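Input record (one chain):
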Amino acid sequence: MKLKKLFQVRCSFVEKVSEPVLNKLLDELLHCGVLTDSENEALRAKLRPEKARELIDTARKKGADASTKLIAVLSAADPYCCRELGLC
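The corresponding structure, as predicted from the sequence alone:
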């Protein structure tokens, strides 16, 4: 369910998520083991739209647990964006 929902909001996520929120997501997802150090470093080197697109795709590819963690971290970091996307 979370995988499908992330796919549905992918374009809106890329448009709406801010750089500071993306950086917070990267920090938290690295801390909880969703992202590896190399994935984190590669994502940080990208511009905001590509960073957002690849982050959501990476979480989706890693499955339901990673997707759920991404949504939880987004909810904590930017509850307005999370609600606007219909994820919370």
